[in-house]
Design brief:
Low-confidence stretches: none
Number of domains: 2
Structural class: alpha/beta
Number of helices: 14
CATH class of the largest domain: Alpha Beta
Radius of gyration: 20 Å
Shape: globular
Number of strands: 14
CATH topology of the largest domain: Rossmann fold
CATH architecture of the largest domain: 3-Layer(aba) Sandwich
Strand order of the largest sheet: 9-8-7-10-11-14-13-12
CATH superfamily of the largest domain: Adenosylhomocysteinase-like
Largest sheet: 8 strands, mixed
Strand content: 15-25%
Helix content: 40-55%
Length: about 350
């Protein structure tokens, strides 16, 4: 069995430095590590993890290792792995199988690789790993003690499994913890999203009409940050209470069919499919920018956008240009998590 598979093991030293920087910012987790090193609460436990392989995740991995666990990890997104961090973890003896720009086949192969280590605990982001165990790796179910899931999208999937009476082991709902919703979702998503937008597009946000689709913990944080940057904020939200809340906060609220006509930048954060669809592309103005910060690449109908485009160009490392009949639209990160694909994800402190 392979011990690891990363893009370039020679990047390990660079990754080690970045992990050290994250450790300086993540003081609560470092205090937990001190306790774990003494008590070894996870001695000889096998953990399989599908998380974004970033410097912040590496701090968690080191902490679990200090607790005595054996760890196999892959990325929960084909575009989010920081290759130097993955190399550093591999050098430290972690069974890591992840690299940036994985194909779909490589993505699922890596999931199966970490399950081949026969885990007793699962840590998931998006519920792909938990779903795979319940469908194609059912031989593992009897040995799994439990799992943790940390995203809104993943928890929606887990709750559906529970309603259908097919969930075979307990799952901790990390996403609904106050420390997750009020800080990671509300603050972290906002900062990392605009970091990605500025890095990849380098545009002036003052005066722009920014349409935020979804006004939950993530969307409300995005709206606040966009307003602080001088943008005119427009909210699209199907939940009437959340829509009313957005209105009472001073934002314009309207259906997507109306917002599509006037927006300069569109940010999806709903967990739902095709909230920006073909009919909306046709209404948008020339030069509109689209990005998604929901977990899966389903919120913007990228397949349809590719079908109707007359020409597609790669503008830079993270931006594609789609030439339609009478305009150009710009898509970040192929419709995947822009804050991780175009930047570094959330600030270390909030993780």
């Amino acid at each position: 069995m392979e011990e690891f598979k990363v893009k370039d093991i020679s990047l390990a030293e660079k990754g080690k430095g970045r992990i050290a920087w994250a450790e300086m910012q993540m003081k609560p987790l470092m205090l937990i590590r001190e306790e774990f090193e003494k008590e070894k609460p996870l001695a000889n436990m096998q953990i399989s993890m599908a998380l974004h392989v970033t410097k912040e995740t590496a701090v968690l991995v080191r902490t679990l290792k200090a607790a005595g666990a054996k760890i196999a990890i892959t990325s929960c997104n084909p575009l989010s792995t920081q290759d130097d961090v993955a190399a550093a973890l591999a050098k430290e003896g972690i069974n890591v199988f992840a690299w940036r720009n994985e194909t779909e086949e490589e993505y699922w192969n890596n999931f199966n690789r970490i399950l081949d280590f026969k885990p007793e605990l699962i840590i998931d982001d998006g519920a792909d790993l938990i779903s795979l165990i319940h469908t194609k790796r059912t031989e593992l179910i009897s040995r799994i003690i439990g799992a943790a899931e940390e995203t809104t999208t993943g928890i929606m999937r887990i709750k559906n499994m529970e309603r259908e009476n097919v969930l075979r082991f307990p799952v901790i709902d990390v996403n609904d913890a106050d420390t997750k919703r009020l800080f990671d979702n509300h603050l972290g998503t906002a900062q990392s999203t605009f970091d990605a937008l500025m890095r990849s597009c380098n545009i002036l946000l003052c005066g722009k009409k920014i349409v935020i689709i979804g006004y939950g913990f993530c969307g409300s944080g995005l709206a606040k940050r966009a307003k602080g940057l001088g943008a005119e904020v427009i909210i699209v939200e199907v939940d009437p209470i959340k829509a009313l809340s957005a209105l009472m906060e001073g934002y314009r609220v309207m259906p997507m069919s109306e917002a599509a006509k006037i927006g300069d930048i569109f940010i999806t954060v709903t967990g739902n499919k095709n909230v920006i669809d073909e009919k909306h592309f046709k209404l948008m103005k020339n030069g509109a920018i689209l990005l998604n910060v929901g977990h899966f690449d389903v919120e913007i109908n990228v397949k349809k956008l590719r079908e109707i485009a007359k020409e597609i160009k790669q503008v830079n490392y993270c931006v594609e240009e789609f030439k339609l009949e009478n305009k150009k639209l710009y898509l970040l990160a192929k419709g995947r998590l822009a804050n991780l694909a175009c930047a570094e994800g959330h600030p270390s402190e909030v993780m």
